[in-house]
Design goal:
By secondary structure, the chain is of the alpha+beta class. The protein has ten helices and ten strands. A hairpin with a 2-residue loop joins strand 4 and strand 5.
C-alpha cells in the first residue's frame, strides 16, 4: 500500500523535514496518486523534503529534496509530517516524468479538492529559478478543472497540443433547445460541434455500452459530431490525432443561432470552494473555542 511506504520512509525524516510530492498529495486526499509508475507496477520513490541543512541517507526508496523548506510549509496528516498542499503539488509536478504527466498530476490534485490552479500558479510564480520550474509552469498553463481521469487529461492534451484543436470544454453539459440534458461531453469543441468521448474500463459493460450508444444517438440527432477514443488508442498519438482531425472535418461548425444544441460549461469553482471550506473551518474552530468547559457530574 502507498500509505505504508509513506509511513516507513517518513520515519527517517530529520527534524523539520516532511514527505512531499505525490506522497504528501495522497495524504492530503489526492488518492489517484498511488506512487506507481506509468506501467502501474514499478514503485516511484517517496519524495522527502529535508531542507538545505537536513541529513539523511539517500537510497532507491526515496527522492531527497534539499531545497528551501520553511516551517510554515509543513503540517501533519494522520501524524505524518507532510508539506502543505501547494508545496506538495509544486514538488509533485516538478518530479513528474514528463510535462504532460505534470499536467495530469495537477488535474488530479485539483479534482481531489486539495488545491486550485490559481494557488499553485501563485506558488510557482513566487519560486522562479527553482529546479524544473518550466515543467511546473507548463502544468499550470494546461491544467483544467473537472478532469475525471489521467487518461482523459492525456486525451485532452493530444487534442489541443498535437491535433491542433482549440481549448476544449471538459465534462460539459450539453442540452437540446428544449432544455433537455443530452449528456456530459467528456471533451467538447464548441466551435466545431465536436464531442470527444474517452472509453475507459467502466465503458466495457453491456449496460454502459448501451447508455453510451443512446447518448451518442441523442448527440448526433442534434447535429453534433461524436468520436470515441480508448485507452489502447492513447498509446498511438498519430492514430488519435488522425481520428480527431477527421472527426472535426466532418463537424458542422454551425453558428450559435443555427444550432439545435447548447453547451452549458460549468464555471471554474475550485478556488471558491477552497475558500468556503477554510471559512467554515475557522468558524467551527471559533465556536469550539467559545464553548464553556463543562465538567460531568461525578
Amino acid at each position: 500500500m502507498p500509505e505504508q511506504r509513506i509511513i516507513e520512509q517518513s520515519a527517517r525524516l530529520p527534524p523539520g523535514g516532511a514527505a512531499t510530492g505525490w506522497a504528501a498529495c495522497r495524504l492530503h486526499g489526492a488518492n489517484f496518486l498511488d506512487g506507481l509508475g506509468a506501467d502501474g507496477l514499478a514503485e516511484v520513490p517517496v519524495p522527502l523534503a529535508i531542507g538545505p541543512t537536513g541529513n539523511i541517507r539517500d537510497d532507491a526508496r526515496v527522492t531527497i529534496s534539499r531545497e528551501r523548506l520553511t516551517p510554515d510549509e509543513v503540517t501533519r496528516v494522520v501524524g505524518i509530517p507532510v508539506t502543505r498542499a501547494e508545496r506538495a503539488v509544486f514538488d509533485a509536478v516538478r518530479l513528474a516524468r514528463t510535462d504532460r504527466d505534470a499536467v495530469a498530476v495537477l488535474d488530479t490534485c485539483v479534482a481531489a479538492g486539495i488545491t486550485s490552479i490559481e494557488r499553485v500558479s501563485t506558488y510557482v510564480d513566487r519560486h522562479p529559478g527553482w529546479k524544473r520550474i518550466a515543467r511546473a509552469r507548463f502544468a499550470c498553463l494546461h491544467a483544467r478543472e473537472r478532469a475525471k481521469s489521467l487518461a482523459e487529461t492525456a486525451l485532452r492534451l493530444i487534442a489541443e497540443l498535437d491535433a491542433g484543436l482549440p481549448r476544449l470544454h471538459v465534462n460539459c453539459p450539453v442540452h437540446d433547445r428544449s432544455g433537455r440534458l443530452l449528456g456530459l461531453a467528456d471533451l467538447l469543441d464548441e466551435e466545431a460541434g465536436l464531442v470527444i468521448e474517452f472509453d475507459g474500463a467502466d465503458h466495457r459493460s453491456r449496460r454502459q455500452h448501451t447508455r453510451d450508444t443512446r447518448r451518442d444517438e441523442d448527440m448526433r440527432g442534434v447535429e453534433l459530431e461524436v468520436t470515441r477514443v480508448t485507452g489502447t488508442d492513447l498509446r498511438d498519438t498519430g492514430l488519435v490525432v488522425g481520428r480527431l482531425q477527421r472527426a472535426r472535418s466532418r463537424a458542422r461548425f454551425l453558428p450559435p443561432g443555427q444550432r439545435r444544441w447548447e453547451a452549458r460549461p460549468v464555471p471554474d469553482c475550485a478556488e471558491a470552494e477552497l475558500r468556503r471550506a477554510e471559512v467554515l473551518a475557522e468558524v467551527n474552530a471559533e465556536m469550539r473555542a467559545a464553548q464553556p468547559w463543562t465538567q460531568r457530574p461525578g
